Amino acid sequence: MFGPEPKCLVVVGAQWGDEGKGKLVDVLAERADVVVRYQGGANAGHTVVIGDSKFILRLIPSGILQPRTICVLGNGVVLDPEALLGEVDALEAQGIATGGRLKVSDRAHLVLPYHKLLDLAEERRQNIGTTKRGIGPAYEDKYGRRGIRVAALRDGAGLEALLAPRIDRANELLDLAGMPERADLAAHRELLSRLAPRILAMATDTGHFLHLALRGGKRVLLEGAQGSLLDVDHGTYPYVTSSNTTAGGAAVGAGIGPTEIGAVLGVVKAYTTRVGNGPLPTAAAAPQEEELRRIGHEFGAVTGRPRRCGWFDAPVVRYAARVNGLTALAVTKLDVLDTFEEIPVGVGYRLGGEVMSEMPADVAVLERVEPVYQTLPGWRASTAQARRMEDLPREARAYLDCLERLGETPIRYVSVGTRRDQIIEV
Ligand code: IMP
Ligand code: MG
Predict the structure, then answer these.
(1) pLDDT tens digits, residue range 152-191?
(2) With a 6 A CB cut-off, is 276 part of the ligand 1 pocket?
(3) Which residue of 37, 116, 131 sits with most ligand 1 atoms within 8 Å of its CB, as the best mutation to test the pocket?
């Protein structure tokens, strides 16, 4: 499957996250030696179904489910030690051996309990609809040059000197926000001294490790989390996450040079979903949204929140293709559309009398646009058994042709179900 792909491949979400990257990376990881997460943290929820078992991965790359793959949490990740070790324990309990296969960057920043309190405080004011995993406040500390990195766990006294001022500052901010909760220094100390040995056992210079792996001809897959429209630079700001989810972030967050990357695969759902606040131009009318959500099981993997559902939005995917430099698309969840009589596809946005050709910078503008739809006939037949394009109904192939044309990117994979084998390679 991964055969014709280059040695170093980036997989990104080309919509608002939850495109099915987890499943795709799991499949591609069969032929990868190393899988790397390069941004985000435990806000991600990658669902992978193998046989009767369902795995939800938050921090650990989906590659962990392939027995030989080495998994890396790069320097660009914000690492919640409790979440990471909880995930390791859960995987081990489900029979997945992680020992020696998981490496974390000693330059990655830690997400601590006080970050989660600050996330709650900030949500009161801004209501972005975050996952409340402390992601934004952890990146604020990083860029504010007051973050605590994995490497700091090596030096107990130094760590103590870093921690106390962070807790004081957090409590000042909580006070200002009128929050009754307080960050507790002793509890943070206890948490870190308890978890540090296990984290440090995995900690290394992962950029150097990847450099050597690439030099040695190993296949490296860089697994994006969230989606391109949640990128802090290119997304629907301020309704975004706090990292660069797009392919450019992969080099920075993994600690390799951009010239190492050979291709960028954009994962898109055959329709569109969004969880959290912010515009969704192609939102479906209530009965159809309900139908998409029910058939597609569109509930957040981390938070359980119902996802908003709508139709494929070609301007979004075209934009994602441009900002990521996508070389191919993987279309997922085609089977969710099996029962629809007609399927609208958003082909452009209209604002006033004008048709817009590019994504506006201002979210207020995107809130006001009217999508222009082209309606395609449905196929009213199951696609779940298809393993080659020829197995698909004619209307389903026409639908994919339309996405490919409008997205201006060739389709390389089509996923037709949650199982590993339910995939078509084009
Ligand atoms: P944060 O990343 O928790 O700060 O949340 C910021 C925005 O990104 C919110 O709209 C979240 O719902 C969204 N978000 C964060 N992680 C994911 C994800 O893995 N899938 C989909 N949406 C996400
Ligand atoms: Mg998800």
Answers:
(1) 999 988 999 999 999 999 999 999 999 999 999 999 999 9
(2) yes
(3) 131
